[in-house]
Predict the structure.
Amino acid sequence: MFRDHNCSELTKLDVGKKITLSGWVNKRRDHGSMIFIDIRDRYGITQLIFDPEISSITHEMAKKLRNEWVFSIKGEVALRDAPNPNLKTGDIEILVENLKILSASKPSPFPIFEDKTETNEELRLKYRYLDIRRKPILDKLKMRHLVMLETRNFYSENGFLEINTPILCKSTPEGARDYLVPSRVYKGNFYALPQSPQIFKQLLMIGGIDKYFQIAPCFRDEDLRADRQPEFTQIDVEMSFDGKDKLFELVETHLKRVFKKCKNIDITIPFEKMSHAECLEKYGSDKPDLRFDMELIRLDEIAKKTSFSIFLDTLNADGCVKAIKVEKGADLSRKKLDEYSSFVKPFGLKSLFFIKKTNGSLTSSITKFFADDLLKEIDEKMQIANDDILFIASDAETKVNQALDHLRRKIAHDRNLIKPNVYKFLWVEDFPLFEFDVEENRLKSMHHPFTSPSTKDIHLLEKEPLKVRADAYDLVLNGYEIAGGSQRIYDSEIQSKIFKLLNLSEEDIKQKFGFFIDALEYGTPPHGGIAYGFDRLIMILTNTDNIRDVIAFPKTLKSLDLMSSSPCLVNQDQLKELEIKTQEIEKITWE
């Protein structure tokens, strides 16, 4: 037997017991006559003492041990002379009588036992199996497990069936790019990896399942960022006959339970709600971070009464003028203001303007273009106090919104306006059903083509489709979209109408969605659902902004697996069997 206890459970109540432990060398300290070694497993750490007076043979063997070697010991639990209050087992130590070395280790490429060691991320990803031994990653994987467990328990208790849907499925490229899998049996034909189980969960509703959930793997071939991965996990939920309000209540109750049981944090339900249009107007984003203020305030009516040509030209071009107020921000240096001006330029904003209030007066390089009554109007509208500063942006509305959204987040971070352990949830509703793709000169679904239009806007479908709102919703937490869903179309005629508005031909519809259209004609119940971004939820619960930290074996921002060196070239015989020829071959350099 390699162990009868793990490395975190022994206490002073066990003093005098003979025990067996196994694990890795976490740290060793050779004091000559005495050797101290911390043994580590995923549960914790226990201090061992190798004393030649207890066993000279074992003491000599212990001299060979190095960090990350795997070993097993037998010994007696004793009280420590100097307890360690920072260690769960800090009251005791083990007087080692027998030692067995199970496996040696090469020197690790980065320290394992020092949790706060700053190590190059690419190096950690290359040796991810070592990185997982470190407490920061291990703790996040433990949290991931706990949330999965609570999710399964919660939905099962509420009458949902967990059902696995196919991984090899049909390509329906209406969203991100699909990952394709060639068929060996049917030459030239391809499966796709699922971007989500969307169609299948709707088919389960047609099949009468009524309540379904799944912790589902999903795949999207899209450009990556800190909160995206090419393969990710969803908590996928669908239900019939209950409607949006019941779904909101269910999700809120689930998350309240997760936060309480996994983090011992009480969150308040129900969550706040806001329309998509209001989010863009107030925060410039459909996933606003509500943990701090700094709303975007529209100044169009004031700006058009000034003599400032930049504002006037913008308004004449159907742009807008918006501002954010930073309380007590007049202390910002010229260097910092220039930094913020440079920060917004990648978002397409040419200029950023500032107005400070000091000693009761508004001062700026642009105030000369404002009459006194306009300055007073700005002062009152923005409710400017002494030592506050305004940041004003003037351009096309999409550019202004995006730039000020990112700027307010950066300022909040720079000025420590975000309090720890604050969780601000928001339901965002009333999304547009469609958006217009200028490059393809056609309508596209804002979410996906199975989203139901709002019953209030059905009459606008044919003549003014861009004004139609969707019966769709996102759940936002601390500036991240953590879930999204909609009520679904269950009328085959409306579904066909949506496909036509998306400029899909009868042939396209039949080829991509034929089986689904057929299914809708066999008695489809009203249904809707939601999909949580599981990895993003774990990011927030574990206080990281890097999605790779919460996935056991993640990819880099360039979709590379540095550990297994993939993607990679395959044997030509494999391609020949699939009758695939590659026009270009890019050999990846891994060193």
Q: What stands out?
A: The radius of gyration is 30 Å.
